[in-house]
Amino acid sequence: MEPGTELTPTEYITHHLTFLTKPIGDGGFWSINVDTVVTAVLLGFVGFGFLWWVVRGATSGVPGKRQAFVELCVDFVDEQVKGIFHGDRKFVAPLALTVFVWVVLMNAMDFIPADLIDKGVVSPVGGHFWRAVPTADVNTTFALALSVWTLMIFYSIKVKGLGGWIHELFCTPFGSNPLLWVFNFLFNLVEYLSKPLSHSLRLYGNMYAGEIIFLLLALWAATSWAGAIFGVVLTVGWEIFHVLIVLLQAYIFMMLTIVYVSMAHESH
Predict the structure, then answer these.
(1) d(Cα 158, Cα 151) in Å, to the nearest integer?
(2) Of 56, 81, 96, 239, which is least surrounded by CB within 10 A?
(3) Interhelix angle for 92-108 vs 34-56, to 10°?
(4) For residues 23 and 21, what is the distance between their CA atoms, to the nearest angstrom?
(5) Is 156 a catalytic residue?
């Protein structure tokens, strides 16, 4: 599907920003973006299957390149956790590694040209829509953020007890005077609601914007020979810069995950 020939620019962008959506049940409110779910699950198997394969063949001697790379990633994440979370890291460190690796892989799908997926994968099997960047779907980022948010509340109750957590909701940060309970609760409610919002929308916004820029560059490259030359040059330049975005957004998402879980273990 060539941009600017079979489709107008608007139709081309709309096509590549449309999900393969299937309704659930009677087709009411609930639906599922099949492309997002399938791509995310496959990347999970690929990423953690690779880690499992490397760890299974790990040796105590001089590590090979694959083992050294995995050890570097694990040590990097563990150091980040150690600097923020001061309790038992048996759960938090693997959680942070899972988040970082999975988000990096999902973000990195943005480097695969959308038309290549259309022509090489989707069209041959009779498909029409397939968005290959799960983190450019707000449902994915919200699901990840809400999972972290649920863990935060779980550990808040586990560490402080249900009574201690409720006491914290109504008695911090302004004090335990009954006249301040409403203000404390509203303050904490805003904080609890803002965490998953900021956690998810930051990642989604950056990846969605990156996806659109790639599509606009593809349109420019299809206009003429000069457009093709400049389009290719700018695409390469944007891909180099996008490497930083892909890694940085995964790092920020991981760090916020560590911070939120760490805050759940703290007492006010």
Answers:
(1) 10
(2) 56
(3) 120
(4) 7
(5) no
